[in-house]
Amino acid sequence: MLTIDLHVHTLYSGDSDCEISDAIESAKRKGLDGIAITDHDSVAGLEEAMVIASEEDFLVIPGIEISSGDGHILGLGVSEQIPAGLSAAKTVEKIREKGGIAISAHPFSLDLKPFSALRAEFDAVEVFNPKRYIGNRLAENYAQEYNLSKVGGSDAHFCDEVGLAGIRLDAKPEVDEILKRIKEGRTTVFGRYLPLSNYLQRIFHRVPQL
């Protein structure tokens, strides 16, 4: 049984202070078998991530979180840049052209267009995100109604958030097999909500130093 966090940000996202090596170390310390690196609109850190993963004998799924014109979309199994600002449908098409799978990330977030992205044909929906209390319930209901595969991810921007959510599945620790299991819906979602201390940390991280 593998335990994997499918939604992790690093320094390459611009709004995270987590080094790739520290994200992997945090995941290992918490008993995870792997993580997906999904930086905002960037694959710049993936080469570094794969080198460290090889050295640490740890599974890293290459990925990206794309800011489509309709909401955020995770492209897992993607190592090449995909432009931001495209429609959700076009973004999903680009992800598949590059051999990846497309996941609607926190689709009912209040700070994004809540329903537009769901018009696209996703491979899965993120139904547990530690920062999205109401949105998780709506995403779960949506996935259930339309028979879509369900996943979870921490959406970690700080290293101690890695592993707050993810999936468990029976599979070999190989990217292609894991992506296949996700598409087939053969995963179990786990997660717990972000502690208040982490919310405060995120707020102060954005306050300019005087």
Automatic annotation (TrEMBL):
Which Pfam families does the entry link to? PHP (PF02811), PHP_C (PF13263)
Q: Which InterPro entries match?
A: PHP_dom (IPR004013), PHP_domain (IPR052018), Pol/His_phosphatase_N (IPR003141), Pol/histidinol_Pase-like (IPR016195)
Q: Which SMART domains match?
A: POLIIIAc (SM00481)
Q: Where is the Polymerase/histidinol phosphatase N-terminal domain?
A: 4-70
One Gene Ontology term of the molecular function aspect: 5'-3' DNA exonuclease activity
- Kindly indicate where the leader peptide sits in this chain: none
Q: Protein name, please?
A: Polymerase/histidinol phosphatase N-terminal domain-containing protein
